[in-house]
Amino acid sequence: MYDVVIIGAGVSGAASARELSRYQLNVCVVEKEEDVCCGTSKANSAIVHAGFDADSGSLMAKLNVEGNEMMDEMSRELDFHFKRNGSLVVCLQEDEMPNLQALYERGVKNGVKGLRIIGREELAAMEPNISDKAVAALYAPTGGIVCPFGMNIAYAENAAENGVEFRFDTEVLHIERKGSHWLLQTNRGEIETTYVVNAAGVYADKFHNMVSSKKLHITPRRGDYCLLDRSVEGFVTHTIFQLPNKFGKGVLVTPTVHGNTLVGPTAIDIENKEGTNTTQAGIDEVIGKAGNTVKNLPIRQVITSFAGLRAHEDGHEFCIGELEDAKGFVDCAGIESPGLSSAPAIGKMVADIIKGLSNAPENPNFKGTRKGILDPKVLTNEERAALIKENPAYGNIICRCEMVTEGEIIDSIKRPLGAKSLDGVKRRTRAGMGRCQAGFCSPRTIEILARERGVDPSEITKSGGASKIIVGVNKDRI
Hints:
Blueprint: E1 2-7, H1 11-20, E2 27-30, E3 47-48, H2 59-78, E4 82-83, E5 87-91, H3 97-110, E6 116-119, H4 120-126, E7 136-140, E8 144-146, H5 148-161, E9 165-167, E10 172-178, E11 181-186, E12 189-198, H6 204-211, E13 218-228, E14 239-242, E15 252-255, E16 261-264, E17 268-269, H7 280-290, E18 302-313, E19 319-323, E20 326-333, H8 339-358, H9 381-390, E21 397-399, E22 404-405, H10 406-414, H11 422-429, H12 442-453
Parallel strand pairs: 1-2, 1-12, 2-9, 5-14, 12-20
Antiparallel strand pairs: 3-8, 4-8, 5-7, 6-7, 10-11, 11-12, 13-16, 13-17, 13-18, 15-16, 19-20, 21-22
């Protein structure tokens, strides 16, 4: 019997778990995939929005600004990559200037600091590759970029260190009220809990509608992206948006915290909640629209394309709170953009709701800091030599594109909620994220995973489930 069960180990669920671990509560996170960060949280723009886009007075606007302001402290406490690079919303026509002015005024009303409208000359000085058609831009210095994998994993690891239990490969099939508690039927048996936090992403409406007469509808909104090689680092230094429309902020061009350039996304409503396949039409749209705001886009340097799903609620609003007709069931639903930016504030809000319902005392043993995986590349030559002398695995390069060592991969497997698959290692260390996209390092990574986990290499998967890499042998083993 748990006090709280959180459905979903994305960034909202993990942030909520971490904040709830501040209290003396028995908390469990159930996740249908094999790892944290396997849904919306793993495939997005990796942007920390300033907060000028959401409607004034909305929960989106409030939590966006609050989450943005919390990000510096969170990245220090939990040791994940975050940078305030600033964002630019580009106006391409003089007759659109009133729309830019309206966006500025909304941002001011939302409490975004430092906003200003800049002219063509200043814009071109800031971004030499900006389109010749650009006439002005809204500049938000508080905008930033973050590693979404690192952030999600950091929250989850810290929650686990503070006593939160994580159950992976555990899919919730049904929820019902049983007296004073909730009963969750899963593919791995029954789970009982006093409170439920519904942080299930595109599936959040499914669980909401199981327990409430006031129905919720979430549409999976697919976004296609292209990722460019780090060889074009510096092509843009700010996050460059187009003036938003009803489908969002348009195609953006942004640097990543690791030195790549990201272009996307599209905004295509679909029915399939697992529909993360890219399409040629989607990629063509990304490339075409990106050319509206920047010139000379080095599109031949694309090393991969991918798609993610946003959990678009019909009212385009975050749905966070205890349900009136389902006491003890707390929605954390409709968390689309700016969900990543808002995650620190979302986690705190959810924890405050549960604290108010349970009156749980504070956890005197709460540890608020977490140290990430050691990256030898940030060390001096002397420090690196000393590290390799102490642990030779840090001198063995496994991923040549990203210069990831065996020591880092071992750490990613052995730490709390450690990696179990190739994608799990990739999200934690970047092994396989480089130009060759795991073409060379996969066999060695499989060997290390198998060795450290004590399993046969044929048991190692790309991303859990049936995604096995080795499906047979082509000669007898000796």
